[in-house]
Amino acid sequence: KYDYSIYPEFKNSIGFTQRGCRLKCPFCVVPKKEGKNRSVNTIYDIWRGGRYPKKMHLLDNDFFGQPEDQWRSRIQELKDGKFRVCFSQGINIRMINDDVAQALTEIEYRDTKFKTRRLYTAWDNLGDEKRFFDGVKILNKHGIPNKHLMVYMLIGYDKKETWDRIHYRFNKMAECGILPYPMV
């Protein structure tokens, strides 16, 4: 069980269903520190239980990267328990498929305050534009609108990056109703 004693005012539940990552992005330390994806907790392992709200902050680096039977079980637990969930670390939109998009439509995904429908993802470099927007299209096909997306924009890592390239990514997302979140 998680120890919430140093945060007595915090009422929601927070934790990881999986650790590690299936990718090896050169700017990220997760694969080196945590290794490959593996499941570590169920939703009920993380939930504080009893009188606490069914609001779950999942800090997974790659929720849908864990074995499919495991992420499907976690989705089912979220549905059965009527949890609201925040994937604030982001889901990997470059690897979205129809099964993942459908699963997302079946749960109450929310922002960090649990007020607004929000999915977090990233568009880290211009070279991923097609893969990024292919993922957006798959989400749209399943009824998840662009306005539900907040997209982390890594800025300053790509050696070829210019202000024009940064503004291009930002404006392309803003024009289609996606909320960009620049991160230097």
Describe the structure.
This protein is α/β, with parallel strands linked by helices. The strands form three sheets. Strands 1-4-5-6 form a four-stranded parallel β-sheet, with no helix packed on it. The longest helix is centred in the middle third of the chain and has 13 residues. The termini are far apart.
Radius of gyration over C-alpha positions, nearest whole angstrom:
17 Å
Structural class: alpha/beta
- Show unreliable segments: none
Query: What kind of sheet is the major sheet?
Result: 4 strands, parallel
Helicity, as a percent range: 25-40%
Distance between the termini: 35 Å
The chain-level mean pLDDT equals 93
Please state the overall shape, judged from the principal axes of the Cα atoms. globular
What's the total number of strands? 9
* Cross-sheet strand order for the largest sheet: 1-4-5-6
- The number of helical runs is 6
Give the helices and strands as they follow along the chain. Answer: EEHEHEHEHEEHEHE
Strand content: 15-25%
